[in-house]
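User: Reviewer 2 asked us to show a designed sequence for the structure in our supplementary figure. I'm pasting the structure tokens here. Could you produce the per-position amino acids so we can include them in the response letter?
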């Protein structure tokens, strides 16, 4: 059996396992690395080198830094802003909730952030136009539109995460994403979807549940986190800001950009802000294992010629000389539809290598397609299966997906179109 055939079979196996999702993604990718080594496609001493890749070196400690932020008063201070909104009404109240949601989505895991905001929403009166029941899904829409879009926190590593999915397939450094690319790409979708949620929340039905109430008993309760002493909180803020500045000014910091988060974690360990055990736990989550494995599989796809085979096959389906608008629209729609049934990370893991392979075969710039997938995979809001935060929203609001489709369907159509337009304008394929 040729190396090309082996790589194609292992790639197919990986995609099926991602969609099936009966085991963690990291287990699947590690198994693929093992199979590549056992079949001789990848040398043994290179089969697990993904853990030392600069992308993993950057992202793993960022997870620990983001985690330690929850031990500070930052989230509490932002939550305190909501307490002052109880007497407000109308568009000011809605904008305030949306603004806090956009901020939360940069630093706090979306499921936890949404649960926090829903609790505050329940302080609203159930009578009148603005009720908690009518705002939960629009609030979700704003949150996923802004999720990790700003170049701070985990958003500062979005470019590196996406690069990791295809850098072994497309080797041209000009076709790799930079820190600000995900933010620039997301500006159009963020504006369009936020405005939609600001003006079209009234499409949400008033009488979906009895009394238009919200079932907070179905929200996943987060663990109480003991805050650090004030002095140590200041150390966390200083270290976090310093690391973010290193990432933002990467043209000055150069390769140190990839080491700055790890240096920050070491400083926080010595300062007693986080224990070595906590840092190790945060830096070895399934996402890191998966990314380390995908890097090796992507290298194998590129070096074996499998990328050409996959790309040419998809091109035959799309048709000869397709327009950029058509290609972008296909991948935008496919991403949103696919995320409805499998996880966000699974969608990225499956579609980005395919998109990169298509671009390689056609001689296109792959960045627009990669950014479409990396952005649109958050926008499947029509069913609880769309994401963890979707599950929280539908459970809390006890929504019937069919009865809220009047709001969610236009949202997803706008998401698909805005991603298509953004890619076409900012990252023409050639």
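Assistant: Here is a per-position design you can include in the supplement:
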């Amino acid at each position: 059996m040729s190396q090309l055939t082996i790589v194609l079979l292992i790639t197919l196996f990986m995609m099926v396992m991602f969609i099936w999702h009966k085991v963690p993604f990291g287990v699947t990718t590690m198994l693929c690395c093992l199979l590549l080594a056992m079949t001789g496609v990848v040398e043994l001493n290179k089969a697990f080198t993904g853990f030392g890749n600069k992308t993993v070196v950057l992202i793993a400690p960022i997870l620990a830094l983001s985690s330690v932020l929850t031990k500070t008063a930052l989230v509490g201070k932002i939550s305190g802003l909501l307490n002052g909104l109880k007497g407000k009404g109308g568009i000011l109240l809605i904008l305030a909730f949306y603004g806090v949601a956009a901020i939360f989505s940069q630093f706090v895991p979306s499921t936890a952030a949404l649960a926090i905001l829903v609790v505050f929403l329940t302080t609203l009166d159930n009578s009148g136009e603005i009720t908690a029941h009518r705002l939960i899904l629009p609030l979700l829409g704003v949150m996923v539109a802004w999720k990790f879009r700003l170049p701070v926190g985990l958003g500062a590593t979005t470019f590196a995460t996406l690069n990791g999915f295809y850098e072994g397939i497309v080797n041209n450094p000009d076709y790799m994403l930079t820190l600000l690319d995900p933010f620039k790409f997301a500006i159009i979708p963020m504006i369009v979807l936020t405005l939609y949620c600001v003006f079209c929340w009234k499409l949400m039905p008033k009488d979906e549940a009895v009394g238009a109430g919200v079932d907070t008993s179905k929200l996943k309760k987060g663990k109480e986190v003991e805050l650090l002493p004030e002095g140590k909180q200041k150390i966390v803020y200083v270290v976090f800001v310093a690391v973010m500045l290193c990432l933002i000014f990467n043209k000055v910091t150069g390769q140190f950009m990839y080491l700055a988060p790890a240096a920050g974690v070491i400083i926080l360990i010595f300062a007693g802000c986080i224990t070595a055990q906590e840092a190790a736990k945060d830096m070895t989550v399934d996402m890191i294992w998966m990314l380390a494995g995908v890097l090796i599989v992507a290298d194998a796809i590129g070096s074996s010629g499998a990328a050409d085979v996959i790309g040419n096959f998809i091109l035959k389906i799309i048709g000869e000389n397709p327009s950029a608008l058509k290609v972008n629209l296909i991948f935008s729609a496919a991403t949103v539809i696919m995320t409805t049934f499998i996880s966000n990370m699974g969608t990225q893991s499956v579609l980005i290598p395919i998109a990169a392979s298509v671009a390689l075969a056609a001689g296109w710039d792959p960045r627009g397609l990669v950014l479409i997938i990396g952005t649109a995979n958050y926008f499947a809001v029509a069913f609880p299966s769309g994401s963890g935060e979707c599950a929280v929203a539908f459970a809390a609001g006890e929504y019937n997906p069919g009865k809220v489709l009047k709001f969610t369907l236009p949202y997803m159509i706008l998401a698909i179109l805005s991603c298509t337009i953004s890619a076409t304008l900012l990252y023409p394929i050639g």
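For the response letter, you might also mention the following. The radius of gyration is 22 Å. Confidence is low (pLDDT under 50) at residues 208-212.
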